[in-house]
TrEMBL record:
The protein's name in its UniProt record: T9SS type A sorting domain-containing protein
Stretches assigned to the Secretion system C-terminal sorting domain: 427-502
Domain of life: Bacteria
Stored InterPro entries: Secre_tail
Xref: NCBIfam families: Por_Secre_tail
Keywords recorded for this protein, A-Z: Signal
PANTHER family xrefs: ENDOGLUCANASE (PTHR42754), LIPOPROTEIN (PTHR42754:SF1)
Residues in the signal sequence: 1-19
Listed Pfam families: Por_Secre_tail (PF18962)
Signal in keyword set: yes
Length: 505
């Protein structure tokens, strides 16, 4: 297959293997347009799909969407142009069950009544099959997309209706893009969503920043019906005068194998100097902070973006220095931080590009051989408007391989039919003496149970084994204290759905 023949401009080279290394890097389209890769995914056959956009560096300009599929060695398989969109910021791309793809994002700035976020369905070769647009009549910015059990889609972003503050939003569409529901989660003033991800027990984690007097990290767990399960606003340092925030179109949240989450964020310096300190925060399944790491040394003003969990429960975090003081960190470097399972810094791996004056990494995918694909954009000073799509493959010998991503929606066996599984809302709710929990189970399973947990601590206080061919469970809650509890359906030791139970006597 032809490699990079249609590239306007490219560099390819190999470096000798000495410890960590840039194995290969190249740039694409270093012309007079603004451009960047903004999202990526590791496909089922091990290739990497990237999506990005390019256009005039003018507020409100129309951008051209592109999709690019590359092999693990960065050889290009194909590049396809997508639709015109009005912005090139945060967006999402997923692989569909038929090995095609779906992209979600985009918003016209000038007229919210005429356009809204859009869903684009692609075939396996990157050709657009259909597009759905969702006009709202108010500002709604599409951010991220997830696959739903029926080959449909969840997509999240943030919205702002007239006279109301910004809020998290989540929508559900079927496999043809027909909208089933859209929900808004008003909490505090000016909530900006940064990312959504499947949890390992079948829920969805929503993550961003909420602004009151200062900025704080906001986390919201919802179930697959979009109902709120649990939410928290975090204050890691506890200083009311310091901002703890998300860089909204770069930072992400990572679902971990212990059902917790790893958050990329930043915090102001003391005293405030205009620089920010990169911060990683680990929370447990109940969204309670477990540890945090703040990068206070050189390189300065680091932004943490993406993270990958390794099989030993340590993590690798992608970062770069946004503002570089004279005589300190070179402009053309980016970094991978290796943190232990309890947040201790193990190592900082520095990668120096031979191509760009400045590298802005935005996306990262982990390959099975302890190498990583890094993408974003580069500044090329030899060009009249020096911006180019950037892609690199880096390797750190000796690192454990990356942990597999959570299975779509739940993690149950792939031969189960998700249509057969359902956890209903308990009734009556609230209740004082007993509660009835309806459910449906797949035909092909070994064991199923329902657990009751404290909502504050996540501590399991009850477990009920479910009988074959049954569809409801009646439980005595007369000895439980007033308050909210979580109940979860587990199939073959895999949590697949969680809902709330209210006790009021």
């Amino acid at each position: 297959m032809k490699k990079l023949l249609f590239f306007v401009f490219s560099f390819c080279f190999l470096l000798q293997a000495h410890a960590q290394q840039i194995v290969r890097e190249w740039v694409y389209k270093p012309d007079n347009t603004s451009k960047s890769f903004t999202a990526s995914l590791l496909t089922r056959n091990g290739d990497v799909l990237l999506t990005g956009a390019y256009g005039p560096n003018v507020v409100g300009a129309i951008y051209q969407k592109i999709y690019m599929l590359v092999k693990p060695n960065l050889d290009t398989i194909w590049v396809k142009n997508g639709s015109s969109i009005s912005r090139g910021g945060n967006d999402g791309i997923i692989q569909t069950p038929d090995n095609g793809f779906a992209y979600y994002g985009g918003q016209q700035y000038s007229n919210p009544n005429a356009a809204g976020p859009s869903l684009h369905r692609l075939d396996a070769n990157g050709n657009t099959r259909w597009t759905k647009q969702y006009p709202t009549g108010y500002w709604e910015f599409g951010q991220k997309i997830l696959l739903a059990p029926d080959s449909g889609f969840f997509f999240g972003g943030w919205s702002q209706m007239a006279g109301t503050p910004r809020s998290f939003t989540l929508a559900r569409a079927d496999s043809l893009g027909n909208l089933k529901w859209r929900k808004h989660y008003n909490w505090h003033l000016n909530d900006n969503l940064s990312d959504i991800q499947h949890t390992r027990n079948g829920n969805i984690i929503m993550y961003g920043t909420t602004i009151t007097n200062t900025e704080r990290i906001k986390l919201l767990l919802v179930n697959q019906n979009g109902d709120s399960v649990l939410g928290r606003t975090l204050s890691i340092i506890g200083d009311p005068n310091r901002h703890e925030r998300i860089f909204w179109d770069r930072c992400t949240i990572t679902s971990l194998s212990d059902n917790g989450f790893l958050i990329a964020a930043e915090i102001d310096t003391i005293p405030a100097t205009g620089q920010k300190l990169g911060m990683m925060v680990k929370v447990n399944a109940n969204l309670q902070p477990q540890w945090h790491y703040i990068h206070r040394s050189m390189p300065n003003n680091v932004l943490f973006i993406k993270a990958k969990e390794l099989t030993d429960s340590s993590v690798v975090v992608l970062g770069f220095s946004r503002q570089v003081a004279a005589g300190t960190t070179p402009n053309n470097q980016f970094f991978l931080y290796h943190l232990g399972k309890k947040g201790g810094l193990q190592n900082i791996y520095t990668f120096t590009s031979a191509l760009g004056q400045k590298i802005f990494p935005i996306v990262m995918e982990a390959l099975p051989d302890s190498s990583f694909i890094i993408g974003g954009y580069a500044i090329i000073t030899s060009q009249s408007y020096p911006m180019a799509f950037y892609l690199a493959k880096v390797k750190i010998p000796g690192l454990p391989p990356a942990m597999p991503a959570p299975a779509i929606v739940s993690g149950i066996k792939p031969d189960f039919s998700l249509y057969e599984i359902n956890l209903g809302q308990s009734y009556p709710n609230p209740t004082a003496s007993e509660a009835i929990i309806p459910y449906s189970l797949p035909k092909n399973y070994n064991q199923a149970s329902i657990t009751i947990k404290e909502i504050a601590t996540g501590k399991e206080i009850r477990r009920y084994e479910l009988k074959k061919n049954s569809n409801s469970l009646t439980i005595d809650i007369s000895n439980l204290s007033n308050g909210l509890y979580l109940y979860s359906l587990e199939i073959d030791d895999k949590p697949v759905a969680t809902k709330k139970l209210a006790v009021m006597k």
